[in-house]
Design a protein that fits this description.
6 helices, single chain, alpha/beta, two-stranded antiparallel sheet, globular, about 40% helix, about 230 residues, Rossmann fold, eight-stranded mixed beta sheet
């Protein structure tokens, strides 16, 4: 069981078909969920990442359902640990995200919920490619310490509201994020967390990053869901 903001929501282990593989995820559905955020991982730092778990708890407290999912199978993760190649296969990551999105849209428990993506690293690029492929299902994207520039030509087709979050002192990522921001076509913003580096380990940095993400989803994902229902 997961406890957020005084409410308990059951955490379900789910198996999601995606092409030739089955992916494992943890689905949390607070009572009266207003939308759903898919938090994906594409490398050895799995869906049990403390940072993603923290963000998920904050979202759950705001009555947003969450799906934490590994986009690589355990066997693929072993390969990736040796080669570091699969985590850079943006097409593969996007295809797995599309598969998870379609599964959520077809499930009786989540099919009525609008979907947002939260992704770090190269998964941010895969999220933007997948959002371009599923514009009627995916409403908002948040990239955390991401490489959205690796989405390439797909950036020109992304219409969803996109927030790119980087640490103020994460020098290697600031310019790639600025370059990606310039190519995005929907509502967009680049937010820097003061004093933070790549993993937001500085005091208060993780909380600021998570609140930025939550506010973005509240503003764009929930607002769209509410407008559609009225």
């Amino acid at each position: 069981m997961n406890n957020s903001a005084g409410q308990k929501a059951e955490e379900q282990l789910v198996e999601i078909p995606a092409g030739a593989v089955t992916l494992k995820g943890n689905l949390i559905l607070p009572k009266d969920s207003r939308a759903l955020v898919l938090l994906a991982r594409g490398s050895a730092s799995s869906r049990h990442s403390p940072r993603d778990r923290y963000v998920a708890r904050l979202l759950n407290g705001a009555k947003l359902a969450t799906l934490l999912i590994d986009l690589l199978t355990p066997h693929e993760e072993l390969i990736d640990m040796r080669t570091a190649q699969l985590r850079f296969d943006i097409k593969l990551l996007a295809e797995r995200l599309v598969g998870a999105t379609d599964w959520l849209s077809q499930s009786p428990d989540t099919g009525h919920l609008r979907i947002g993506y939260f992704g770090a690293g190269t998964v941010a690029a895969g999220s933007l490619v997948a959002a371009a492929l599923r514009p009627n299902q995916v409403i908002a994207v948040v990239s955390r310490s991401g490489r959205p520039d690796l989405a390439g030509a797909a950036l020109m087709h992304v219409q969803v509201a996109t927030l790119l979050i980087v640490g103020e002192h994460d020098a290697e990522l600031i310019e790639p994020n600025r370059a990606a921001l310039a190519q995005l076509r929907g509502e967009k913003q680049l937010a820097t967390v003061p004093g933070a580096t790549h993993f937001f380990e500085e005091p208060g940095a993780l909380e600021i990053m998570a609140q930025l993400a939550s506010d973005w989803f509240e503003r764009h994902l929930v607002a769209v869901a509410r407008a559609t229902a009225t």
